[in-house]
């Protein structure tokens, strides 16, 4: 056999056994939080027309997308980003709805990134989009919900950093940067490259006060005090309005009792150009990348024909699992499966017993055995597959009950089990 058939392409991987079950448990726990906040599920296709994610939408670069063609010659892409797809759905199905729309999702995104970075090219995201609500309360609610999701899965040491795109936008507009210069400055700030920022800013014919705040951009992160510090550094109206919005969001998050999880980063930028206001990311130790990303995108939905304010959040499930593993935070698997071992002559009783337990919500596996089978061999098997107990049909009425967790064995009658 060709061993190549057993391997996956670079950037994707199989998830199986306990890891797969843990992933589903995490997703379900966080999904419960989204439902508690009033969000309703939506599913979008794994691939869409290229134009949904084109450069004009402000999503990722074209060469980072997986592109292919249908029979009619249309260019299609595996979705690299959930938000534009949901923006399309909102414009199509909720065109006349003016009150808040709360949608949540779970699915894979596909980005053809550089393999040397060690990033997966297919990642699972669980997220939510709040449409038709431009309020500061909506901003705070989405951040609060993100924090609650991380707490729900057992994470304790994490921080959500919040920024605002208009702090940066206001400063570069005042400095009259060209588009190419803005992109260079973005890259330098994202990399916290102080020398790169200084090199770009020094040659600009702008005031020393504006230069100073631009020089400081990579360093403007910390607690609430950084907002007051930045506010004193600039008189730019757009930048100061951004700071006020951040303060208002923080005041509301303190009402949620979640202020301790929040810090600020006024130099925070995003590769997604559709963000128009608050942006945020969640970080913890054990992974270098964000486990939560989100932000406000008030101009994206209107590109599909509906003028709507919107804010979204996505939890990167794969990164979250890495962090939990490295922090030794275990996701306990429920050993709630029971194995019934039976010989062929007791098949009818075994099927009756299994049907009774399944009708009461128990997970039952059935396995035929020979007359000479050894129970201990199946005990090792149940440990491997996470089964909590074994029922051995001694005859059509007598059952040996083995509790694997407590290592206790009892003999009971079938009539005692089926009430």
Set out the fold topology.
Blueprint: H1 17-36, E1 40-41, E2 47-49, E3 67-69, E4 75-78, H2 82-93, E5 101-110, E6 122-131, H3 136-152, E7 158-164, H4 165-174, H5 179-190, H6 194-202, H7 208-216, E8 221-222, H8 225-233, H9 237-255, E9 262-265, E10 278-284, E11 292-296, E12 310-316, H10 317-326, E13 337-342, H11 347-359, E14 363-368, H12 375-385, E15 387-393, E16 398-403, E17 408-413, H13 414-417
Parallel strand pairs: 1-5, 7-9, 13-14, 13-15
Antiparallel strand pairs: 2-4, 3-4, 5-6, 6-12, 7-10, 8-9, 10-11, 11-12, 15-16, 16-17
Helix pairs in contact: 1-3, 3-9, 4-9, 5-6, 6-7, 8-9
Question: Could you please describe the fold and organization of this structure?
Answer:
This protein has 13 helices and 17 strands. The protein is of the alpha+beta class and 419 residues long. The two termini are 52 Å apart. A hairpin with a 4-residue loop joins strand 15 (387-393) and strand 16 (398-403). It is elongated. A nine-stranded mixed sheet has the order 1-5-6-12-11-10-7-9-8, with helices on both faces. A five-stranded mixed sheet has the order 14-13-15-16-17, sandwiched between helices.
